[in-house]
Amino acid sequence: MGRELAFILIAVVLAAAVTALVVKRCHEKRMWEYQDKILRTQREEIQSIYRTMREWRHDYHNHMQKIKAHLALNQIEELKDYLGRLEKDLDAIDIAIRTGNISVDAILSSKLSAASGRDIAIHCKAKVPETLAVKDIDLCVLLGNLIDNGVESCEKVPEKEKRFLRIYIGVFKEQLYISVSNSTNQKKRLLSRELISKKWGNHGHGLRRIDWIVGKYHGFINRKNEPGVFATEIMLPL
Predict the structure, then answer these.
(1) 137 Cβ neighbours under 8 A, 6+ residues apart
(2) Residues 234, 219 contacting (CB under 8 angstroms)
(3) What pLDDT, on a 0 to 100 scale, did the predictor assign at position 93?
(4) Residue 157, pLDDT above cutoff 70
(5) SS3 143
(6) Residue 27 and residue 140: Cα distance in Å, rounded?
(7) Is residue 122 packed enough to be buried (19+ CB in 10 Å), middle (13-18) or exposed (0-12)?
(8) Which residues in 19-174 belong to E strands, given as ranges?
(9) I need a surface site. Which of 164, 183, 198, 214 has the fewest CB within 10 A?
(10) Is the pLDDT score of 235 beyond 80?
């Protein structure tokens, strides 16, 4: 009887362990699928910017011929209208953020360009070495998640004048320092484990992915959650 009970207990423990492992694997699979989707979107946004820039450069001579034709015919109003349309096209594709690192320029320009049309006050200051120990793909996923989470949080703030997103990236104590803070409608402090809980859905997946990348490079992360403000500080080796 004692041996049978022992076997039953072992079977129960094994079943629980297998179940926990399956649940963990399913959860990780969902997280990676979500992150792959985010990464694909980011790549498509960046590729779209560069594709449009290449097309505009290709058409440069055509634009110049058009401008010269208006000048030759003294068509000043038509010329102003044409230049105005060209300016709008350039504003839409400009790599507005210049950090010194092409990958960071692309991801910040793409994300902040999308965020600027959502009634969010944006301030960004970034200076990044051209070469880093962190892989470009990891850095893009890290920054993409930080900004996406910040924008998502801002959009939940009903008072548009209170929405803000502040980004600072630079070198501090021979490490890459990243700081992202944003407005939030949360009225109370939350612990880190509450922020990454299942109830936060995709936001929680993004936070877990950020933690995974920071851990991969043996970096440091600190989250500050105060009423109305959420901030993340990250240190990564150069």
Answers:
(1) 39
(2) yes
(3) 53
(4) yes
(5) helix
(6) 23
(7) buried
(8) 121-126, 164-172
(9) 198
(10) yes
